[in-house]
Specification:
Length: 317
């Protein structure tokens, strides 16, 4: 049996406990309750009118964020494969994999229905982008189960922040409510994975600290391989929907604090080394985030000075 298999087996009771906790806390909700169906109408193939840009009430920023978030959700079959091959299909791990997959699918359903019904984005472009991105799929590389569970702890919280702030820039109470609902799911997912990593730290502190350092240093959003990701993530960062400051302050640090990453006294040489690397990386990330926020504030001030109203509408934070 490999170390990973041992660890997965040792974590099984913690997974079972957290699965029960999750099922107790998760509230049932239905995508159809979050979509303004009365705004819907036929497209040309049914005798209606096809999409054109002026039909959308979303700004370019809101569109970029919604498309990025939806396409990210769409690649669920790849994520399912990634976690099912790492965590297995048996016992509590297997039940979690199925339940998590079912919950995630609801996010894509709600967002797509909203965008198509309200004509928020071009449905043809959206479908082509989905085909492209899903055809290439997502591959997390050769992560172990421990690295995967560590990565998703951060990733779930990152999607929570990103959905929540996307809701703010839509300036649409319907979209805001839907994205707030989805964010709650992402938060519960984060709590589940975070608790598994807490237990892993108790069982195998050095190995787990190594995984934490590697996943924080190498962190990349799952959508990084989709077409237009660099452009869209710049728009998303400029609007404060997701940027380095949020990544450091609201995603990485709260989880590391929860794990007592910097106060632990149970690390050996391997864990200490990993923690040092983590600390060095975080210092760099923090100053990079500060520089980004400074530059952005200058840019915003210049834009506000140029515009007559002084308004900067596309800002989440
Ligand atoms: Fe999701
Ligand atoms: Fe999630």
């Amino acid at each position: 049996m490999s170390t990973t298999d041992h660890l997965l087996e040792a974590l099984e009771p913690v997974v079972a406990e957290n699965l029960d906790r999750h099922l107790g806390l998760a509230q049932e909700w239905h995508p159809h309750d979050y979509v303004p169906w009365s705004e819907g109408r036929d497209f040309a193939s049914m005798g209606g009118e096809d999409w054109s840009p002026e039909q959308s009430r979303l700004s370019e920023t809101a569109k970029a964020a919604m498309i990025t978030n939806l396409l990210t959700e769409d690649n669920l079959p790849s994520y399912h494969r990634e976690i099912a091959t790492r965590f297995g299909r048996d016992g509590a791990w297997g039940t979690w994999v199925g339940r998590w997959t079912a919950e995630e699918n609801r996010h894509g359903i709600a967002m797509r229905d909203y965008l198509v019904v309200t004509r928020g984005v071009d449905p043809v472009e959206l479908e082509r982008a989905r085909m492209d991105y899903m055809t290439s799929g997502y591959d997390s590389g050769d992560k172990t189960a421990l690295e995967a569970v560590t990565y998703v702890s951060f990733q779930e919280l990152a999607t929570r922040v990103s959905h929540r702030n996307t809701g703010k820039v839509t300036h649409d109470p319907v979209a805001d409510r839907m994205l707030a609902r989805i964010s709650k799911d992402e938060n519960l997912h984060m709590v589940f994975y975070r608790n598994i990593v807490s237990a892993a730290l108790e069982i195998a502190p050095d190995e787990t600290m190594r995984a934490i350092a590697d996943e924080v240093v190498g962190f990349e959003m799952p959508g990084a391989t989709m077409a237009g990701f660099r452009r869209n993530s710049m728009i998303i960062a400029k609007a404060g929907i997701y940027d380095l400051r949020l990544h450091h302050d609201d995603v990485i640090m709260p989880i590391l604090r929860h794990w007592n990453a910097f106060e632990r006294t149970d690390l050996g040489a391997v864990g200490e080394q990993a923690r040092d690397e983590l600390a060095t990386f975080l210092e760099g990330l923090d100053s990079q985030a500060s520089r980004f926020v400074e530059r952005r504030a200058e840019q915003r001030a210049r834009t506000a000075a140029r515009s007559e109203t002084g308004e900067t509408p596309d800002i989440a934070s």
